[in-house]
């Protein structure tokens, strides 16, 4: 291969890095600030994110979020989130499940009507669960007044470290593909790089956040990294199903908000389950 071809290949490999960096510099501090300031600012951020996420999902399904049946998705997720915010978790989960069933029913009833494309009704309704489960878990984590801030910061750090480690290791090392039929760009080296960086960041955070076992923090971070990568693969499979490259063009270098939060939506339920198992007010790594 000529020097020019090598240079072109290198440029192509890193061509989206600048856009990714600029987007992360803008969005990352905003998320951290809302988490740090308390549950109310974080709830407001979650409301905005849910509105965008559900809009993207409905748009992927070829529908409009401001009218039925597409409107059923944001309504169900936002109502469930409102119940979680006022600390009615059982009602929140019941509303989410009911919203899924109602969205499915409304979509089935609307199929083939004027202006509504014929498509599987379950496809639309699954957006309620896909976005709603992760959203409710994030709200529940932050509303722990004693450990919520530290737990959510730990979760975000593990997810971001997994993404960064996977991106850098995959670009630098390459090698065998992780699951080429679903995501042709992801490699085993990238997956391992994300896992290692997440474990290192998780262990280091015990020196910054609440003290605890560095080994346990690394293990918890590893589990969150695996969930993050599984969520990334799931999002790739979803986009392949819908035959799109990105869920939208909202964020330069990242596509849509679903493209950016796919790992977090998958890792949040695991973090919430760990938090539930160890008890209220306890950091995940203790």
TrEMBL record:
Record EC number: 2.7.7.41
Signal sequence interval, chain numbering: none
Keyword terms: Cell membrane, Lipid biosynthesis, Lipid metabolism, Membrane, Nucleotidyltransferase, Phospholipid biosynthesis, Phospholipid metabolism, Transferase, Transmembrane, Transmembrane helix
A molecular function GO annotation: nucleotidyltransferase activity
Pathway, per record: Phospholipid metabolism; CDP-diacylglycerol biosynthesis; CDP-diacylglycerol from sn-glycerol 3-phosphate: step 3/3; Lipid metabolism
Subcellular location: Cell membrane
Membrane topology designation: Multi-pass membrane protein
Top-level enzyme category: transferase
TM ranges: 21-38, 44-61, 68-85, 91-110, 122-141, 153-170, 191-209, 264-285
Pfam families referenced in this protein's UniProt entry, alphabetically: CTP_transf_1
Catalysed reactions listed for this entry: a 1,2-diacyl-sn-glycero-3-phosphate + CTP + H(+) = a CDP-1,2-diacyl-sn-glycerol + diphosphate
UniProt family annotation: Belongs to the CDS family.
Protein name: Phosphatidate cytidylyltransferase
Organism: Roseomonas elaeocarpi
């Amino acid at each position: 291969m000529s020097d020019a071809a090598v240079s072109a290949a290198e440029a192509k490999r890193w061509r989206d890095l600048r856009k990714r960096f600029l987007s992360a510099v803008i969005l990352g501090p905003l998320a951290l600030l809302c988490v740090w300031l308390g549950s109310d600012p974080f709830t407001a951020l979650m409301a905005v994110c849910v509105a965008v996420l559900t809009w993207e999902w409905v748009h992927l399904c070829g529908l409009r979020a401001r009218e039925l049946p597409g409107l059923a998705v944001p309504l169900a997720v936002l109502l469930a989130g409102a119940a979680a915010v006022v600390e009615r978790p059982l009602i929140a989960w019941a509303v989410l499940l009911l919203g899924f069933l109602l969205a499915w029913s409304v979509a089935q009833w609307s199929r083939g009507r004027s202006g509504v494309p014929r498509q599987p009704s379950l496809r639309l309704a699954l957006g309620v669960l896909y976005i709603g489960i992760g959203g409710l878990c994030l709200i529940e984590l932050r509303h722990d007044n004693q450990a919520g801030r530290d737990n959510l910061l730990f979760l975000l750090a593990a997810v971001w470290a997994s993404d960064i480690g996977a991106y850098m290791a995959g670009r630098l090392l390459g090698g065998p593909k992780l699951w080429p039929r679903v995501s042709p760009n992801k490699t085993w080296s990238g997956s391992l790089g994300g896992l290692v960086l997440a474990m290192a960041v998780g262990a280091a955070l015990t020196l910054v956040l609440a003290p605890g076992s560095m080994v346990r923090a690394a293990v918890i971070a590893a589990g969150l990294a695996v969930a993050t990568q599984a969520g990334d693969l799931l999002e790739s499979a979803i986009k392949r199903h819908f035959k799109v490259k990105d869920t939208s063009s909202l964020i330069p270098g990242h596509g849509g908000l679903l493209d950016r939060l796919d790992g977090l939506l998958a890792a949040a339920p695991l973090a919430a389950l760990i938090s539930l198992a160890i008890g209220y007010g306890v950091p995940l790594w203790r």
